[in-house]
Amino acid sequence: MESKRISECPMHGVGVRPDYLVGRRLEQVVASWHLYGSEAPSGPLDVWLIDSEGVATRITTGSDWCLIVEASDPFAGYNMAESGRVEVASISGETPFADHLGATVLAVSEESVQDNGRIALEITFDSGRVRCETWSGDLRLSSK
User: Fold this and answer.
1) Which distant-in-sequence residues (6+ apart) come within 8 Å of 31 by Cβ?
2) Is 83 helix (H, G, I), strand (E, B) or coil?
3) What pLDDT, in 10s, does the model give residues 94-123?
4) CA atoms within 13 A on the CB side of 112
5) Any idea what DSSP says for residue 103?
6) Is 117 left (phi over 0), alpha (psi -120 to 50) or beta?
7) Range of the domain at 10
8) Is 94 left (phi over 0), alpha (psi -120 to 50) or beta?
9) Distance from C-alpha of 127 to C-alpha of 85, rounded to nearest angstrom
């Protein structure tokens, strides 16, 4: 794995460099979840970090298993008929980012693999770290 310089994903490009988050406070986290019948939700599918400048940074996985980081506003949830639905809402405690609401971003680091682009992003707050990574096409979030 390579860090610092991100190779470009062939399908999604390089996305944004999340360095702009450094020095900003995490004000809100919005996430999307796949809900199917009475099963526990899977996901999150996407997370949006809304910072003290009002910028929404979306973190999600691509169809080729890269980690996409882009500036985009949260979208509305939608119904997929017999395949369930996707709900989009502010989170209160469902992701590791909830522990860092109101915290300032001190640093970001990225990991990539040659010819496939970004595979991980780690965000360091004054209150701890959150690692975002793609794992077999799923978005995985963990605290450190």
Assistant:
1) 43, 44, 45, 46, 47, 48, 88, 89, 91, 94, 95
2) helix
3) 789 999 999 999 999 999 887 778 899 999
4) 20
5) P
6) left
7) 2-143
8) alpha
9) 34
Token digits of residue 14: 């390089």
Note whether 47 and 101 are within 8 A (CB).
no
Tens digit of each residue's pLDDT (9 = 90 or more) over 10-44: 666 667 788 999 999 999 999 999 988 887 776 79
Instruction: Compute CA distances 133 → 6, 66, 82, whole Å.
Output: 14, 9, 29
Q: pLDDT at residue 4 above 60? A: no
Total domains, the chain: 1
* Percentage above 70 pLDDT, the chain: 90
Write down the residue that tokens 């190779």 correspond to: 7
